[in-house]
Amino acid sequence: MEESEPKEKKKEDVVGSETVMEMIKRKTPWVMGSVARKPNIKFPSVKRRRVAQRVTKMSTKAIVVLAIYIILFVLQTGVVYLAYRETPAVGQDSNGEALFLYPSTQEAFINESIVASILMIFSSAGFLMLYKASQHLYDKRVARRYIIIGLLIILGTFFGLQAMIQIKSGAELFNI
Predict the structure, then answer these.
(1) What SS3 state is found at 92?
(2) Sign of the CA dihedral running 61, 66, 72, 74
(3) pLDDT at position 148, please?
């Protein structure tokens, strides 16, 4: 008698031998078959920084400077004066036309206090640019740009504040 050789069992014969991925591949073949291949797309991993991460990575010196600027802005705006006097935001003259600057140098509207404070903060930013120019001593092009931009900001804010004062006092603008 001839001994029969044991037949090798196929995967289909064994119950439960098919993995989940094999079932998915078997039941949902690629649409294009073997004609086209699935595209292999690799997306770059981009990490977005959050605001909280940036603030926590700031040095204590930068945080102190930022706090000083916020306090200066609040004090220059005249928050105590505006809260105590309860001044209106914008007024009007006897003809009913809107006034954005109070006609006297003794009083002020809220908006002109805020504008004056913003101009002073810009002016201090101009002085910071002049300081930054001194740090770029060996790169003259960068230093020159910082100096020019800083001086333009300082002069622009100076003339803006002078215009506000002259309008409030009733004098002609820049009577030279």
Answers:
(1) strand
(2) negative
(3) 95
